[in-house]
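Friendly challenge for the regulars: who can give me the structure tokens for this chain first? No prize, just bragging rights.
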Amino acid sequence: MSGFGGRVALVTGASRGIGRAIALALAAAGADLVVNYRREAATAEAVATEARALGRRALALGADVAEGDAVAAMVARAEAALGPIDILVNNAGIALRRTPEALSEAEFARTLAVNLTGAFLCIQRVLPGMRRRRWGRIVNISSGAARGGGIIGVHYNASKAGLEGLTRGYAARLAGEGVTVNAVAPSLIETDMLAEGREALARKVPLGRLGRPEEVAEAVLLVAGNAYMTGQTVPVNGGMHFT
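First reply, four minutes later:
Bragging rights claimed.
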């Protein structure tokens, strides 16, 4: 697959799982790559190394997306090394499994800070350049939990529902400026988030299995490559829910 040659993509939370798959799919499609991570520097660098093996320029940069100064420094370093960010994939997120009774105020706040505020901070930092160039692709990684009960907790539901609202709000205001904003909402994907009970969860999926990170990445490339699609949420859920 090709189509993003000459573009620079920033994928947050890209050291493993869905983020890693998205990053490598973008690199395979021709994009130079910024691999964001928070703690796992070695695995993030391994993703960058794989991208370089595909002939791309790639850089691994650590930053907590919930911190505005850290996001600003990351984007500045990325653009100094690779050029302006054309494609932003807000994938970084946390998923602390909690019952309503066990959920603390701090855990609720941290979940929203990473999953929702983090996306806002990254968008705000790259958006001025996208608007000046009249070209940009923003893809927010939501979840089936944005519109359903989910298995993580109410804090996760709230963060992902907010992310879809953020997606539609930016899309409405940027339509006509060459910048599209969409979301991809995976459910029950085979990642570390589903470390327990995978067989039981797979039985809930009409297709009879968990999804693969690479299948989420395919959906990201779909919306990033479509200049006429904006403000949409694309579910990747094996037929669990229809829209």
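The domain at 8-187+216-234 is CATH 3.40.50.720 (Rossmann fold). The chain is about 45% helix and 15% strand. Your move, everyone else.
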